[in-house]
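Researcher: I'm comparing several assemblies side by side, and this is the next one on my list. It has 818 residues spread over two chains. Same procedure as the others: predict the full complex and return the structure.
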Amino acid sequence: MELLHTDTLAEAREKLKTETENFMLRIHRIPCDEALGCVCAETVTARENVPSFRRSTVDGYAIIAKDSYGATDSNPAFYSVTGHVNIEERAAVSVMSGEAVQVQTGSMVPDEATAVLMVEYTETYSPNKIVGYKAVSEGENITQIGEDMKMGDCLIRSGRKINARDVAMMAAMGIGTVQVYEPLVLTVISTGDELVDMDEELSGAKVRDINSYGLAAQARSNGFIVRKQMRIKDQETAIRQAVEEALDESDVILLSGGSSKGNKDYTKKILEEITHNVFTHGISIKPGKPTILSYDRQHKTIIAGLPGHPMAAMLMFRLVILDWYETIAKIPKGYPYFAVMQENVSSNQGREMCLLVRLVCGEEDYTAVPVYAKSGSISALERADGYVMIPRNKEGLKKGERVRVEVFE
Amino acid sequence: MELLHTDTLAEAREKLKTETENFMLRIHRIPCDEALGCVCAETVTARENVPSFRRSTVDGYAIIAKDSYGATDSNPAFYSVTGHVNIEERAAVSVMSGEAVQVQTGSMVPDEATAVLMVEYTETYSPNKIVGYKAVSEGENITQIGEDMKMGDCLIRSGRKINARDVAMMAAMGIGTVQVYEPLVLTVISTGDELVDMDEELSGAKVRDINSYGLAAQARSNGFIVRKQMRIKDQETAIRQAVEEALDESDVILLSGGSSKGNKDYTKKILEEITHNVFTHGISIKPGKPTILSYDRQHKTIIAGLPGHPMAAMLMFRLVILDWYETIAKIPKGYPYFAVMQENVSSNQGREMCLLVRLVCGEEDYTAVPVYAKSGSISALERADGYVMIPRNKEGLKKGERVRVEVFE
């Protein structure tokens, strides 16, 4: 009675990447303010210098810096105000020694001026005559052309999930459209004779269909389009038909429920018949072993059999399918949290372990508290904030050990 | 030449909360699988016990535990298989001493059975006769009724942003609909004679309108609906008209650009005339001082004048308006990151400081690297991952000091 040959997580990921070589992410160009949350599919660079002109960073007077040298409260410098520059205007006036041109925050500074004296350090003593109580150095309160950003500087790397600040950057640069990846299309099929839908009464030993809802929501929150979310009986023909119907329109098909070693597990057989390319027959990770991976080269569709247990199914979707997507789209990994283990945890050697944990925020650090859950626990979905990966060659985790916690989205 | 009286950030937040007492978040009930990303507006509790029946956690045989005591590889126990329970079925068969009923992972366990013996530890030696090579204790491999969750247990607290696991939990519980807050409606008005739109040529001292794009995107990524995003000249009548038009349909109006001390700053005057209720005339925080807060009690609309600098505007939107929303909707704060300061940073005493930082992920910890940016820097939007708040009574931060970094969404 032994398990089939299983892959390590790393092996399964590598196989999936290799097998899907002919898979192409689709790219489209969209307005930058509709790109929020999309994955950038090009490297966006600055098209202009910022600022594009010498800009005052304060309200005050553009002067020749030298004129102010030595000025103090008791020994002010004197200036004639020869003009002013409004913030939208080109600075047409010139500045000569002893002169000052009034500017606002954001105004263009006249070419000859070499500093801006803040209005707070000046006083008007007669029309167009001011005194300045402070010395300013060359360049003070002026942002030089291209000082903030130079033409050609990288703004957004390919693979970045575009956030609000990225949208602001593109607006700043006059970049009206951006290439992003089209969302992947996913079909979720929950299989199991015991499953009833949300609004049905539970009777006998029926349980509710959780996975089609959970996986669809997880896919959506990662930017996928869910084409269809369905629940079918654990019958060979029904499953085969559902998969075949989904092939044409799906980049990813998730089958959940039929990959453990029960009586009626047709998943592997069906995937083999449809794709002739089932390359992972189990992953040696706890939880999540009964994970099957196949790829239909003709339709360019990944078909994955995920565990029936909701937490395991959602974890394997993250660790395998989302990881694959992040790899091919070059999406940087999210920042993990570092935490201190609250207690010793043992793990199976020879099998990687995905330890569910709750994060407790302290004054200066986090504590990771293991979330224990029997196989199939549903409450674990709510009790855990994330997980710690324990490598297979490691005996476990020690109380006080520092760990990386990957937090669920 | 002194600044107007300014509030501390804490004072401004408190005033905003008090002044908006008559503001009511709108609640609606939606299907649970459409609630992803919405803010839960009720406390969702378990309506059923999970599991609702005694459930086997393995494939194997339901037995009387006592029958297995002492069984080993060399001294197996003998059982007659009297039936089997499919996973969707009510367990109709009973189990007596010496008997075994075949069950699958997820099957209902017959009432009399007190443990399940894993199939891996059994062997069939003639039809309906098995031997078991292992002893199992009372309750082993059985999840008891309500063991995972009990009726009445809290599943989702009011204020939680509903994630994929929450959707899975609701599906598990047969909770088809959930009360969530309707998104707030927001209008963004960028003011400034110097502003041109994204697709226009820059000429003279014009700069692009960044804030209407950045703030709108920030609002959207926090679940707001952006009713309108507009850019208008810094003219009193134009601004007044835009605000008045937005009042009826907006919960929040953001004005950006006209709150510093330039020539043409009508914001304060207009807000006073429209709302008769401008309560914050500046916040003593760097950056973000020129922030004006008012509330129109009649229309139940917050009108905020935000700084013109993009980074400052987005920070103040987060620190004041989003903070307000999170407070009234009781949304828990996101987890901060802890990091070690890379260098000394001085701060103005008497004024809170929002220090932009980049996070560098090390083996066991993060380093926070200050992002220096002149006032109005646009590149800071891209260079910073988040910020550290330095309280006003603190001199600065020391190299090696542990800090909390709030990461931008």
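Model: For your comparison table: The mean pLDDT of chain A is 91.
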